[in-house]
């Protein structure tokens, strides 16, 4: 914040402007202090690290700048972890491919190498019994896919291999050759799978731990960025407070003494304020009078005992509030005038209607009494 420069104050209006400036800065400081408190409380203790809506766009921009470096670093680390995890999973898939090759090379594997020829074998109810057909040829194609449609991990392949045998056992009677072949190969496959399973379980556990760690690291990075921004904002507030105090001292030095007549007018003007505005005026007095109780049931305000700064601030405040009240009163009076005018017009129109109706009735009675009727 740039330092305030005041070369001199020669007119009463300049003093009033400075008083108004002090009020505005004081309000801003109070708002910023509350915002700092909320930010520190939220971002240092809350589990929800989403950036909340705030009117201070500059603050949001700085938070984003602070977050950017940390987030980029976390993204790079996550990318490295994913690459390492993918390499380990590919190694597990190669080991699984060796197991699958041993199974498919068995003499009983040929019925399961290709999709079931439903029409050729006359298996008209096959799709009613089997919801998801599967074969080794389809598994191999998916394992070799390069377009992103392939298997993501070993357990997905394992599930499809078991499905091949489970479908055959489900559709064919247990005494059928295909059922017996499928059951035998499934047992052999499960034995080999159990040898690889510990490595698969270890890799899955490692992935979960790395994902959890990545989330914690990202959360901590966000917390650090927000906490840093809160501290920086606190420092800025200290600078604002210093400039505000300098401005107060300058105003005190430059303010001319308020005359007795002006103090009397100020006292009278205070009695014309609304209860709400009067409370705010008393708060202004309390700012430079620690012993003054603005909220007491009975308040004794000694105008002559107030500092020149307090008097000028009160004068500016009272003038602003009375001007606003006068404008509001003018609007209300104007509305009432319009209402009265409309009511007068309405009454006049009604009177004319009644007169016209009476005249018509008189004409009718005259016609009835005529000798020619």
Structural account:
- The chain is 75% helix and 0% strand.
- It is an all-alpha fold and 373 residues long.
- Helix 2 (57-104) crosses helix 6 and helix 6 packs antiparallel against helix 7.
- It is elongated, with a radius of gyration of 44 Å.
- The termini are far apart.
- 13% of the residues are buried.
- Residues 1-8 and 47-59 have low confidence and may be disordered.
Structural class: mainly alpha
Principal-axes geometry comes out as elongated
Radius of gyration: 44 Å
Strand content: under 5%
Low-confidence spans = 1-8, 47-59
Number of strands: 0
State the order of secondary-structure elements, H for helix, E for strand.
HHHHHHHHHH
User: pLDDT average, as an integer?
Assistant: 78
Query: Termini, distance in Å?
Result: 100 Å
- Sheet with the most strands? none
Q: Helix tally?
A: 10
**Share in helix:** over 70%
